[in-house]
Amino acid sequence: TFDMSDKGAMILGAHGNINFPDSQNASTDVNTLDDYEEGSWTVALSLETGTATVNSSYNTGVYTKIGRMVHAQCYIYVSAVSSNDGWFNVSLPFTCDNNSAGQVSGYSAMNCSLYGSGSASNSISAFVGFTSPNEAKFSMYGWQNTNEEEIADELNTSSRILVSGTYMATA
């Protein structure tokens, strides 16, 4: 049961839960919360040049989606790389919006860390990931002073990537 009679306070029934349907019942009213979901996705890693394989024991990310806002996090363990160069992309559970309020042309920043034997070169001082508008991925770059650095060549068979961030999905 649902009762709002106590001075405007929301009072839930005996179980204290709000249950959303398994499939979103989308509303055109921007003030209606019409979706909540917790889940996981299989993380894929792609390189600008070359290939990388993710250890299947460490390729699952988790997310919470409230309306169109998605918070995602994952831990990736690289098990093989070949001819790696440029930047790399990490898949996300939902397609990123193209132009949301608070974003610059559909881009959102993701917190990233890259570590492991031989990775995260001393020449790179910071790592950052940006979502890709209209795609379910983000690209990871390195920064040294004010210069963008390609970091796929920093990956090796013991590299680990930690990702955490929030972005707007298309739906």
List keywords for this structure.
mainly beta, 5-stranded antiparallel barrel
Description:
The chain has strands at residues 2-6, 9-12, 36-42, 45-54, 60-66, 69-91, 109-115, 126-131, 137-144, 147-149, 160-168. It is mainly β. Strands 6-9-8-7-11 form a 5-stranded antiparallel barrel. Strand 1 (2-6) and strand 2 (9-12) form a beta hairpin. The chain is elongated, with a radius of gyration of 19 Å. It starts with a strand and ends with a strand.
- Please list the strands of the largest sheet in the order they lie side by side: 6-9-8-7-11
Low-confidence stretches: none
What is the mean predicted local confidence, pLDDT?
A: 79
Rg, rounded, reads 19 Å
Major β-sheet annotation? 5 strands, antiparallel, barrel
Task: Give the helices and strands, then pairings.
Layout: E1 2-6, E2 9-12, E3 36-42, E4 45-54, E5 60-66, E6 69-91, E7 109-115, E8 126-131, E9 137-144, E10 147-149, E11 160-168
Antiparallel strand pairs: 1-2, 3-5, 4-6, 5-6, 6-9, 6-11, 7-8, 7-11, 8-9, 9-10
